[in-house]
Design goal:
Elements lengths: L12 H13 L4 H7 L5 H5 L2 E2 L7 E2 L16 H35 L11 H10 L9 H17 L13 H10 L6 H11 L8 H31 L5 E5 L9 E6 L3 H11 L2 H9 L5 E6 H11 L3 E3 L4 H6 L5 E4 L9 H4 L5 E4 L10 E2 L7 H19 L11 E5 L3 H9 L7 H9 L4 E5 L11 H11 L3 E5 L1 H9 L7 H5 L2 H10 L4 E3 L6 H14 L11 E5 L5 H12 L3 E4 L9 H15 L3 E3 L3 H18 L17 H4 L3
Parallel strand pairs: 4-5, 4-7, 5-6, 7-8, 8-9, 11-12, 11-14, 12-13, 14-15, 15-16
Antiparallel strand pairs: 1-2, 3-10
Helix pairs in contact: 4-6, 4-8, 4-9, 4-23, 5-6, 5-9, 8-9, 9-22, 9-23, 10-15, 18-25
Amino acid sequence: MPDKSKKIRSVDPAAQQMVEHSYEKGFTLAWDRYEALQPQCQFGTLGLCCKNCILGPCRIDPFGEGADCGVCGATVDVIAARNLARHAAVGAAAHSDHGRDIVHTLRLAGAGGAEGYEIKNETKLIKLAEEFGLKTDGKDAGKLAQEVAEVAYADFGRQEGQLRLVSRAPEAQQKMWSEAGVTPTGVDAEVVRALHSTHMGVDNEPEHIVRTAIKTALADGWGGSMYATDLSDVLFGAPDPLKARANLGVIRPEAVNIIVHGHEPTLSEMIVAASQTPDMLEKAAEAGADGIQIAGICCTANEILMRHAIPIAGNFLQQELALATGAVDAMIVDVQCVFPNAAQYASCMSTRIISTSTKARFEGVEHVEFEESRGLEVAKDIVGRAIEAFQERGDSETVVPDVSEELVAGYTVESIFSTLGGRYRPLFRPLNNAIRDGRIRGVAGVVGCNNVKITHDEGHLKMVRELIRNDVLVVQTGCSAIACAKAGLMKPEAAEVYAGEGLREVCRAVGIAPVLHVGSCVDNTRILLACVEMVKEGGIGDDISELPVAGAAPEWMSEKAIAIALYVAASGIYTCLGDSFPIMGAPKVRNYLLDGMEKDFGGKLAFENDPVQGARLMIEHIDSKREALGLDEMMYEPIEPVEEDVRASSRA
């Protein structure tokens, strides 16, 4: 049997060290579970299996042997389209439910019924109220917050008309959605309709099912997720650029170490607040700790990073590695992307794994129900448990890699305005001008997860470096943002090392990095709205589909990513994914997503597992949009791709 400790699991030096340590300790990691499942079912990979009713399960051989349809008569395209729609519905539900919880907390806070929460951004609250047609004169922030929350709630349950935030999109894009019949009505309604349509014997036209999936995804992108972002800014404050650090080296063995992991900031905000109260700090000191160190994993990490400069411990595939350090006293989890086997670490060390959500329990770990109505009280209870775990840890061995990197985070549509145009002239004109002049070739949003099918972080780093060396400004969210932060790409100095001549010139002038952190996964809506502002500013297209922009998720793995990719592409943006959707065995579905949908929406999908080649496809697309706009003359010539070893250039 080959020595698994010798396999390269990650390009991140901290992760490499902890993988080796984990194997020495006898821990099983995600990569091992993946290898134990080989070969994975190729019927599922191609999208050709169905278990939607008890007549099955059915599977169709792509080589024509055996049945050519399911028992009910569903063809390969119907089966694959139904599977895709179900994935999109779950992904949209996950992110939109996050948005619903933010709406709930905003309403409670406005009524004074949410301990520890307050309205921190009245300016954005008033702006939203005015957008929603609410009267603002004479109303205090609490009353206005309740009214805004009620408007948002109505959009989740809307049964007729269209989602309110759809009107933010350029008119041309709204017209495309209307003509294609995909303008979303209500978040919950679209999720339910998608699931209903995939029931046995309902929708049996492949392209129509795919449009249903797109409609559901749009309800997330221009509904649930957009509300989550906007109302989080109202509750917790709009982020501004700030400095912090990222990677496992931010864990301090001498301190009480608390890792928050998941996606919903209502919990993590209170954990941060509780950890800074005098009574908790005194209790930690009495236990012999040098303070309380909060750090994050996944999108919860991004939420508290960009508002409080709380350091990031790592991304999705580092959650087990953080626990393996032995220095984590408590990992606090809520929902999404949490490995169910976390209990293996709690059973052999003093670490407390504490679940908190009404929606998510984990066998073998503590559960402390989090309630927004007494958020600070619950958070203090949790922090207290972490302090107890620190005392239990005592002098136990800890192994923490001395690896972390500085980054700048906290970019939003509003802060990009200020950064580009200055305090007194906040506008997107400098960005549009830089694109017109050819100093910046275009803009790319590189987002998404980690995936064990590709070396950890390698897809993100190779793609992003190829883009910025060809003068493409990159904006990022989620675990992709964390990958590039750990590699030193999110600080201004990175432009001198990695950026092309034109992009480097702009970064020097403005004082920004060539790669901008714009938040968590739900904050992909910030990227959409930045594109809207570029259209409004003028000069580089009258619709999102005309802009020299592209999107990508080189290491995607979740159903949320399927919903995101669909709403981004349906918003007019060419979107390149590192692994294909499970539809490749269905020619009608595959051809529509890779080609046909561009006629309907101006954007389409591409699948390319080589991240450098994926970047080149994006650059070709950006150049084609420049040519269509008459901007084909570049000040700086494109650079030929080079194969680089990102392991060698990762920094400690």
